[in-house]
């Protein structure tokens, strides 16, 4: 999986319109959809939380992968189908949920069958999560469930703060699904937890190993999806990093927590805040 696969910028006009409508709210609930197919991990996770189980016709193959999905156990009780347009012809859904990266046959088939096709972009901050919850809830006709889910999410977010917010520490992120540039989800999580990203010497937001060792941040955050799945994950096992960042100066975040925008993303924020609290109560990294 590419290092920044889930931090791309929304460009599909249809998705822009959809999210604009979600931000504005809806005066009335849409029809309840009873044959819903999700072709994307992130829509899988929201659908499992918001839809009536009998209305879920199929999920993406990643839904049952516990390394990537926060609801993998629940997803194992549902059918999994290929995320392509040909399969949708046989399935006959009344709504299809997907991300903005998909196979070219999907929108063609949805247009031909006159089936609503809802696309969600990857989130760039925690503020995007309620928007996406509302978007999916309105699309499937479960506005009340969406509103309840948003209330719980926002209440928990409001309660999460570092003990010493005035002490801003530095952090560097390496590994799968963690992009080290300003303006992304991990940047938002770090800022809320009392960290700032270490300055990068490269345009893609990465930092050289030599620089990382010579000028270490207060915290090294590593992201893992599955062992040996990519070079981005292998780098976290480099002996130089293993020896330089130990104990409270290193935090491993499961990739599934930052893969999509779900209420479980707050588990990552909570872990970062706990790391900040430990560091601000101890001696700085020499």
UniProtKB/TrEMBL annotation:
Gene3D superfamilies: Nitrogenase molybdenum iron protein domain. The keyword Signal applies. Residues 1-29 form the signal peptide. Residues 35-286 form the Fe/B12 periplasmic-binding domain. SUPFAM superfamilies: Helical backbone' metal receptor. InterPro entries: ABC_Transporter_SBP, ABC_transptr_periplasmic_BD. The keyword Signal applies. Pfam families: Peripla_BP_2 (PF01497). Keywords: Signal. PANTHER family: MOLYBDATE-BINDING PROTEIN MOLA, VITAMIN B12-BINDING PROTEIN. This is Fe/B12 periplasmic-binding domain-containing protein. It comes from Gluconobacter albidus. The lineage of its organism: Bacteria, Pseudomonadati, Pseudomonadota, Alphaproteobacteria, Acetobacterales.
């Amino acid at each position: 999986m590419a290092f920044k696969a889930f931090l791309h910028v929304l460009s599909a006009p249809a998705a822009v319109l959809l999210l604009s409508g979600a931000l504005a709210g809806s005066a009335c609930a849409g029809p309840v959809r009873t044959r819903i197919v999700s072709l994307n991990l992130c829509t899988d996770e929201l659908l499992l939380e918001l839809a009536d189980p009998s209305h879920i016709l199929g999920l993406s193959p990643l839904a049952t992968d516990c390394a990537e999905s926060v609801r993998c156990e629940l997803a194992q009780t549902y059918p999994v189908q290929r995320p392509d347009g040909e399969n949708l012809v046989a399935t006959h859904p009344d709504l299809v949920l997907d991300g903005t990266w998909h196979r070219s046959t999907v929108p063609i088939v949805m247009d031909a069958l006159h089936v609503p096709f809802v696309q969600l972009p990857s989130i760039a901050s925690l503020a995007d999560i309620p928007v996406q919850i509302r978007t999916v809830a309105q699309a499937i006709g479960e506005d009340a469930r969406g509103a309840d889910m948003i209330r719980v999410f926002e209440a928990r977010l409001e309660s999460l703060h570092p003990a010493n917010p005035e002490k801003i520490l530095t952090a560097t992120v390496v590994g799968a699904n963690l992009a080290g540039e300003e303006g992304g989800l991990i940047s938002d999580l770090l800022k809320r937890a009392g960290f700032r990203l270490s300055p990068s010497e490269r345009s893609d937001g990465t930092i050289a190993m030599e620089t990382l060792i010579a000028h270490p941040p207060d915290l090294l955050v590593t992201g893992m999806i599955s062992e040996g799945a990519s070079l981005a994950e292998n780098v976290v096992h480099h002996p130089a990093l293993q020896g330089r960042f130990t104990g409270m100066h290193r935090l491993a975040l499961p990739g599934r927590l930052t893969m999509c925008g779900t209420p479980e993303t707050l588990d990552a924020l909570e872990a970062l805040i706990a790391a900040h609290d430990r560091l601000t109560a101890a001696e700085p990294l020499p």
